[in-house]
Amino acid sequence: MTEGPAWLNAIGQIFHVIPDLATPEQVQSSLREILEDPELELFWWSRDERCYVDVHEAPRDSLAKAPAQVVTLVEYDTRKVGAIAHEARLLERPEFLDSFVPAMRIAMERDRLQRDLLHTIEQLRASRLRLVTAGDAERRRLERNLHDGAQQRLTAALLTLRRLERQVEGDGEAAALARSARDSLAAAIDDLRELARGLHPPLLARRGLAAAVRAGSAQSAVPVELDLEVGEGLPPAVEAAAYYVCSEAVTNTVKHARATRAWLTIRNAGDELAVEVRDDGIGGARADGDADGTGLPGLYDRVEALGGTLELESPPGRGTRLVARFPLAPGGEVS
Asked: Which end of the chain has less Cβ packing within 10 Å, N or C?
């Protein structure tokens, strides 16, 4: 690499040969080929460690590995970016310092920004997953507390009230008051039971996704045709999210779609769980807001927190189709 055109080619290869999001090892390996220096080492400045780290992110006090190597710093006037330990012969060409190193500075800065962005995205995804998991656990706790606490106490009170109703049966006014109180209390228990079921259906925890979906669909005011291949051992967070996708989609069909029928399909392909709900309604559903009370924004957050995707197709007059896909790692865990 002694001619100018060769140096221009080397500079171009920094951006065209080294792929985007290449690992540090790949960048170092590519530079060794581009510069024909098999011992070349590349270092990034770690702002957290306040030192240089090699391509394996190990801190390095001494950058030069061999006596024949020299170290060229890759930096701006105001901040450090990295360093290159290389053969001294590269300094014989002014293009190395004048053109190649500045190009490397841009490339290394871009690489660090990309990796920082990916790290931030992964942290955000992990945080969202923790929130979803914690939310589901809280829903289960509230459902158990309502069922084992308030609901049972109200049911006991209803039984007592029914006994009282029988005792005052001959007293017209008292009997009427007892009947009214009994009906109101029975309605309140039904409301509480519905609330508890909405928080987290007990059937989902006891018998799994398929059973909970069948039970929920059986209560729908619109006939729902089921095609379920759920499989075993789904992560609880995926089961809960898939159930709420089904529940919300069927609820929207009943409330908004003016549909005569709905179709609900679940497929477990081993590496992915796919949930599809469609209807023959009026369409026109939107995912960019919740003015019509569809609950779709919340579903998007829940599905995406698990690394999944949610797709909505709802052309006016042609029905609505909602598809959620959840990635699964081997063994059924969230990937």
From this structure: C
pLDDT of 262 above 90 = yes
pLDDT in tens, 225-245: 999 999 888 988 899 899 989
Q: Which of 171, 199, 227 is the last residue of a domain?
A: 199
The tokens for 253 are 């069909």
Q: Is 175 left (phi over 0), alpha (psi -120 to 50) or beta?
A: alpha
pLDDT digits (tens, 9 = 90+) for 44-65: 998 888 899 998 889 988 887 7
Are residues 194 and 220 located together in one domain of the fold?
no
CATH number at residue 270: 3.30.565.10
Q: Which residues have CB under 8 Å from 63's CB, separation 6+? A: 41, 43, 52, 71, 83, 85
Please indicate, yes or no, whether residues 82 and 150 belong to a single structural domain of this protein: no
| Same domain membership, residue 252 and residue 215 | yes
Neighbours of 326 (CB within 10 A): 25
What tokens were used for 181? 């109180």
Other CB atoms within a 10 A radius of the CB of residue 288 amount to: 9
Query: Where among 69, 90, 124 does a domain terminate?
Result: 124
- Mean pLDDT across the stretch 312-316? 92
CB 323 within 8 A of CB 276: yes
Domain of residue 186, residue span: 134-199
303 and 211 part of one domain: yes
Contact partners, residue 238, CB within 8 Å, separation at least 6? 273, 306, 326, 328, 334
Give 34's pLDDT tier (boundaries 50, 70, 90). confident
